[in-house]
Every structure is written in structure tokens, then in C-alpha cells.
């Protein structure tokens, strides 16, 4: 009995080597959730208000579908540990709701008295704040859809494999458009797909490079070097496509985020005892050689952008300082979610108008949240995300199955968080939806399932 169970577990962890039909468990749910996310990517990141509202509405309908399906509902209800992140997220929502009233911690903003409207509110734009609160509720819905998916190991594995496959197809399509010039690009010489920014596309491909490394390293366990390509052909192909697209974005922040994420994955695998120092040294050496070769052949644009780092850093530093001062002027309640554009216009003057008037985000997600939501709204949101990651890591280190996938998802968070210091990918609704789904997926996967 014990030997049969071990053999079964080994087959389940071995990766997708079975038949394609009938589809593996969870294909329908994963296809619906990831289909929504990639349609949002294709809709130019769902940056338009109409597209973003459709996306979050669809996420709510998906969650209703999960709740209405008895087997998925039972799995979702078995997910433990949601109380802490849910409470913190609820506090962030409450802070946003209070900002729509005169009872926010900072009181009524003087702008309402200036325009002669009473009663006023803490936020300087009620419509923008209301829209952001709706988007946050949509992110909560897709997080729970991800949690429902990850509550079953077989469903979670299907979702990760489908995510990698769709990302590789998206990457091929984006690279074709970039190479042929068929699609308009906001910056010449840099791949962006339909995400409206090469740096946003860089975050997407950085995340997916790290996620793909998880099942790839899993399938390379115990495999001789000469058989490495045959052992995981599909994952190798996806990794090459995604890494090539990442380099074509020429995003410095995404490259740094990828490096930090890969290093994080290595550290977690070593700490969890999944690989030995000798084997990991060979993997790291091969990775360094591959990275150097990739930079030599297709990374010229990226290396060129590193040479102009000082000039760009000076511009970003000026913008960060400007908005940090705005945060310090209203540190508790902020100016209201979604109000960056108005704040930025107010802060512009004759000395910075020429260089900063086209900016539509702070290029630092942490400063932007502090400025818009204040400490009372930003700290609970940071805590909600941090608690999900910490709980997932703590439980994942105790698991014996699915660990390569869990650790890869955890390491991918680092790419998002690091790049968030210098860019605005998380202000793109489709990227926020994707990350929320992945957070929910890793949270429930780390708990394990009964099947």
C-alpha cells in the first residue's frame, strides 16, 4: 500500500506527461479565469474604464460560479488562514469608503469648500475613488477564484501549466508584432505587446520566466545533463520564448526583478532541501552562461538603456520627491484612491512641466498608495498582501508535494514587488488581476488538498 501511494505521488509530481484527452481536472475553471485575464491583457491591459469594469464584473461572476458549484465551494470553504488577509483588506476598503464621506481621518479636503460644495469628503474625486473601490472588489473576487483553483492539487497543476502555455503563446504573438512592426508601439525598439508599456510587459514576462522555472526544475530532478532537453521540452520552449520577450522589452526594472526572483527561488529551494549545493551550483552556472549569451545576442537595447540610467534615475527621483512631499502633507488619509492624475496636475509648475506633464503614474506603487490612501489605507493593503505571501511561504515549506510550483509562484512575487519600486505595472488592471489570481492560487496550494 505504501509503495503504491509513493508511486502515485511521484507520478503526480512528475509533470504533464499524460494524455491530453480527457482534459485534466480543473481545465474549465482555469480556462475561464485565465481566459478573462488574457482577454484583459489583449484589451490593452484593460486600461480604459469600460474594459476594467467589464473585467472585474466578469471576475465577480466567476466567483459566483465557483460558489454555485458544490465541489468547488467545498474546496474553497476548506481553505484556512484567510481571516488575517481578509481583515486587513477589509480595513483598506473601509478607509476608502470613509474617504467618500466627510468623516475620513484627514477631514474634508479644502477643495470642496473652494468649489462651494457641502458636505465635502476626504477624497478630492469621489468618482475616481468609487471606481478604484470597485476594482479592488474585483481583485478580491479573482483572488478567491485563484484560491478555489489551488484548493485542489490537480486543479492547481492544470492552472499553472495553462498559465505557462498561454503566456508563451502571448509572447510569440507579441514578439511577431514587435519584429514585423504590425502593431503600434508606444516606444520604438522595445516590445510591449498590448500592455501599452514595455516596462509593464517586462513585469509580465519577468513573472512568467520565474513561474516556468518551477515545473522545469521539478522535471529535471535526477535527469542527466544529456537528457535535460528531452525531459522537459515544453517548459524549455516556453522559457526560451518568455526570456526572449523579457529581453526585448529592454526593461531594466524587470531584468532586476527577474534576477531577484530567480535568486529568491534558489534560496527557497536550498532552504527547503529540494536541491543540493552541488546541483544548484551547476544550475546557477548554466543560468549565468545562458543570461550572458542572451544579452550578447538580443540584449543590446537593454544594455544600452542601462547606460542612460543616471538620466532616468534623476527624473524618477524628482517625481518621487514631489509626490512624497504631497504624501507628507496629508499622511493619514491621503487624497483618495485613483486621484493621482489630479494631484500630479496640481503639483506641476514651470520648472517641471516640460518633463513631467505626460506622466500618468508615480512609477512607484508604494508612494502612490501612500499618497492616495494615506497610512490608514495603504498599511492595511500592504499588510494584506504581505500576510498572504508569508502564510503561503510558511505552509509551503511544510509541504512535500507541489513544492516546486508553490515556490516558483512565491518567488515570482519578488519580481512584482521589486519592479513596483520604479514602475507602474500594478496600475495596469490586467496585471493586477493576474497577480491577484496568482496570490490566491499559491495561498491555497500551500495548504494542500485532500485529492
Mean pLDDT: 86
Considering DSSP H and I runs of 4 or more, what fraction of the residues is helical? over 70%
Structural class of the secondary elements? mainly alpha
Q: What is the percentage of strand-forming residues?
A: under 5%
Return the domain count. Answer: 1
Radius of gyration: 22 Å
* Head-to-tail CA distance between termini: 17 Å
What do these coordinates show?
Helix content is 72%, strand content 0%. With 451 residues, the chain is mostly helical. The chain has one domain. Helix 2 packs parallel to helix 8 (153-180) and helix 13 crosses helix 14 (300-307). It is globular. Mean pLDDT is 86; it is low at 1-12 and 14-18.
Short description:
The protein contains 20 helices and no strands. With 451 residues, it is mainly alpha-helical.
Topology:
Blueprint: H1 2-13, H2 27-42, H3 49-68, H4 70-77, H5 83-98, H6 110-114, H7 126-150, H8 153-180, H9 198-219, H10 228-231, H11 233-249, H12 252-271, H13 277-298, H14 300-307, H15 309-329, H16 340-347, H17 353-356, H18 365-396, H19 403-419, H20 429-447
Helix pairs in contact: 2-3, 2-8, 2-20, 3-7, 4-7, 5-18, 7-20, 8-9, 8-11, 9-11, 9-12, 9-19, 12-19, 13-14, 15-18, 18-19, 18-20, 19-20
